[in-house]
Amino acid sequence: MLKFVKTLMLTLALLVSGTSFASEFDHNYTTWNSLLAKHVKWLPDNKQTAVDYAGFQKDRQALKTVLNDWSSVSQAEFNGFSRNQQMAFLINAYNGFTIELILTKYPKIKSIKEIGGVFSSPWKQEFFTLLGEKHHLDWIEHEQLRPKYKEPRVHAAVNCASIGCPALRNEAFTATKLNAQLDDGMRRFLSDPSRNRVKNGELQVSPIFKWFAEDFEKGHQGFKEVKDVFAKWAKDMGPTPEIVDKIASKSLPLAYTEYDWSLNDIPR
Question: CB atoms < 10 A from the CB of 195, how many?
Fold first, then answer.
């Protein structure tokens, strides 16, 4: 009986300790949010942002502290997060480690694609630890976010440090605001005529919708085909009621714009 009581007490102590440890994680991402607010600026049209990488470089120690905190999260602790907490964590990690990757070469870099070699893309570089193991950026996006959470709007959340990519938000993703942030990211991206537009009788859209078409064809968020995405945000994309109707009715043929891989650096 005494042995049973001791075992029970030890188990309770471990559970309490684990709960206490998990609750210490800052799901508001206070420091990361401050860094983004300081170094990421919306452009005048509020559709795209520019990143002050030189500013991030000056605050690199603060950034590294944030990244180290994320790297210290164990798989067990992560498993205790809610679905939205897990997604926010992974999106923030992708964006934060992408900035760190750029800083390893900055300012002698004009595009993220300059990182790596012929047989090793920047997204395959294992340069960080997450959930107890060494990983690369593709692991976060293609092995975690896309297959496990089945949320196509995530493509407007993860940022590849390029002008052609949907905007890097100047605030952290959080579980409580996640749905609104994902919707807002899609709306801003789709309403940006430099990347998505109606021209020459075509609906010309970002090649993101070609590369990841399958994510928009499985019924998630009500999207059964790529054109459903544009139909949902037709009012944001169309400059006139006539064009809005054409987008909404999915009557326009699709074409794809050129992707701009230039670094989304703040103008110097």
Answer: 23
